[in-house]
UniProtKB/TrEMBL annotation:
Compartmental location: Cell membrane
UniProt keyword list: ATP-binding, Membrane, Nucleotide-binding, Transmembrane, Transmembrane helix, Transport
Record-given protein name: ATP-binding cassette transporter
Topology with respect to the bilayer: Multi-pass membrane protein
Residues of the ABC transporter domain: 349-571
Residues annotated as domain ABC transmembrane type-1: 44-322
Domain of life: Bacteria
Gene3D superfamilies to which the protein is assigned, alphabetical: ABC transporter type 1, transmembrane domain, P-loop containing nucleotide triphosphate hydrolases
Amino acid sequence: MERPAPRPSDAQTLAPALAPALAPAAAPPGDFSLMGLVFAQNPVVFAAAAATSLASGATAVALVVLINLALMSDGENLLRLGLAFALVAAVTVALQTASGILFGRLGQEVLARLRARIAATVEAAPLRAVEQVGPARIQALLTDDVFTIATLVVRLPVLLTNAVAISGCLGYLAWLSPALFLGAVGLMAVGVGGYMLASGRARHHLEHAGGRQDALFSHLSALVSGTKELKLNRDKAQDFRTHHLGATIESVRRARTRGITLLALGSAWGSLIIFGFIGLVLFVFTGGGAVATGYAVVLLYLVGPLAAVLEDLPRLALARVAGRRLQETEAALAAHEAAPAPPVPFTGLALEAVTHAYWDDRTSEMFRLGPVDLAFRPGEIVFLVGGNGSGKTTLAKLVTGLYAPESGQVLLNGVPVDGAIRSAQRGLFSAVFGDFHLFESLVGLSGAPDLDARANRLIARLALTHKVSVEDGRFSTRDLSTGQRKRLALVAAVLEDRPFLVFDEWAADQDPAFKTVFYRELLPELKALGKTVLVISHDDRYFDCGDRIVHMESGRITADLPAGTGRRGVA
Ligand SMILES: Nc1ncnc2c1ncn2[C@@H]1O[C@H](COP(=O)(O)OP(=O)(O)OP(=O)(O)O)[C@@H](O)[C@H]1O
């Protein structure tokens, strides 16, 4: 098949892993500011935590100076120095404890707020963008990546304290011996340069691991949802375990190990330089004695913070990779839909030359829907019929406003739909799609008058009273058969009392008796209430229950006829 030029639907989407075409929408990787992100969560706590960390770094340096003074003292000042030491030590411990607590709190806030932010972004994003990002990436972000960022936040006080301690000690060293200070700074630059080189390569592996991690989450979800299939077939289970799940676990492990090893080598290079420098100063240049003792105290104190910083740098690298993934995904989901609009009365909906296309990267094939012209009036029952894959569900997503047309337009009550009006369009609908989700309660309906009684009456009509009931708006159970859960989804949809209902092959899993209740009783009742209903169906026995039958083939409407005329049984 010839590859079609325009790919408008996929062009709305994703960051690197998903669609390079999107690159302009996503911020360049270097833009990600971890500190900015943490600061934004709670500026007051961040400022207080940072201030206490910095102060504790400074008091730690004061301790080194006091130790040095005590070592050089002739005994006269010892009591005064001792008292000062005790005071500074107590303040240091208090500051370190306070910064630990504050950053711990900030870490939990970052975790909670980032999760809430991702959830809000997903909720506000267009359905198509969410579908293209995929559940695996969203799940990985909400668990693994967010946790990596929060872990770094908890380590931030130590990092900051150590950074200040290193700077202070270097300053003190400069005062003791400018030449030694310059030597220390020069060698530290060599150490840091080596580390940066290694960490650059490491980041490449860590980013690759992030991409594989999305695949891993997808396999893990297949492991749970595909348990039945895997248990029935040992070969399938073994193949899945070895070549799919196992291979992905292994590739994440390999990429992460490479990244972490490179970071460890970078840290080792840094430590080597530090110890080399200390050795040179103590054993070669100063030649021992009292002068050497003064330098030794400072240099030995420096080792601890420097080693700790080098140890924390990999965490920083991991958190930056996680932060970039977060930023890319948010950019991919950035096209926020307009905020929910107040309900509007429904007088008519029309699709004019509406099109939509899906591009499948794996098969390099395009599915095109439309151009479609279709109109709905209040109180109409419209059957949408056609073969598998002909585009019925996609058309229903366009009708309901879940997808925006790529070309053509939708008119709601005669007004062209865009932005906030599309939100109003969605507000007209209740739908039960094939992949419906049954919430554990009648969410969005709490406080509605007589809710439990109305729900239980509908449950009784669908012969589910012996299985489930509604109390305080909650279903007593959701452990039901697929057909039974679909009946509950229908109960929820009807109770929402929206003017337009969509049922996507609702009756496919139902017994003949329930099919009859649905087609011969519920649909006429909904019509009598003035509801418009779009019924996607293959049940040609019941097509006479509709006002119109719309036929689809290969993404096109091939007939739109009053019920009872021609083309019966096409589906
Ligand atoms: N989320 C998606 N991403 C990419 N392609 C999709 C997506 N959903 C559907 N398609 C493609 O669009 C075509 C139409 O699918 P659609 O679900 O609209 O058909 P349908 O008529 O409802 O089929 P069925 O009767 O089997 O439910 C299919 O060929 C499918 O491959």
